[in-house]
Amino acid sequence: MNKVILIGRLTRDPELRYTPANSVPVATFTLAVDRPFLNQKGEREADFIRIVVWRKLAENCANNLKKGRQVAVSGRLQVRSYDTPEGQRRSVTEVVADEVKFLDRPKTSAEPEFDSIDVNMDFDSGNDDIGGNEVPF
């Protein structure tokens, strides 16, 4: 069995390309996945895992994902080899995703920022016209 499930954040925007032979869409991105433990300095470390997505899912990822977005990815682990122009043999380990779930919504300029809410607002000033026996909902 070869099944990988990851949750992490994109380190940069996905890169969308098309295969030269038949123009099949393929997108790649790197996912930063936190390790479940702290290092000796008490800091959380992350693994940076290359993700490959094909066809319609590749186009959806390229159009909707940006650096920093949190996603869940499921797929299979793949190790492939290639030769460099200098004749060196290289291998790449990557996850070929068959499912990508967007876990957070993208921030838009229309959304209010919660950091700017005045926490000292006077909440006693509203709904003064409601009687003691009346239910406001």
TrEMBL record:
PROSITE patterns for the chain: SSB
UniProt entry tagged with the keyword DNA-binding: yes
GO CC annotation, single: nucleoid
Superkingdom field: Bacteria
One Gene Ontology biological process: DNA replication
Classification via InterPro entries: NA-bd_OB-fold, Primosome_PriB/ssb, ssDNA-bd
Membrane-traversing stretches: none
Alphabetical keyword list: DNA-binding
Pfam families in alphabetical order: SSB (PF00436)
Coiled-coil residues: none
Keyword match Plastid: no
Disordered, as annotated region: 114-137
PANTHER family: SINGLE-STRANDED DNA-BINDING PROTEIN (PTHR10302:SF27)
Quaternary context: Homotetramer.
This protein's name: Single-stranded DNA-binding protein
Organism: Biomaibacter acetigenes
Gene: ssb
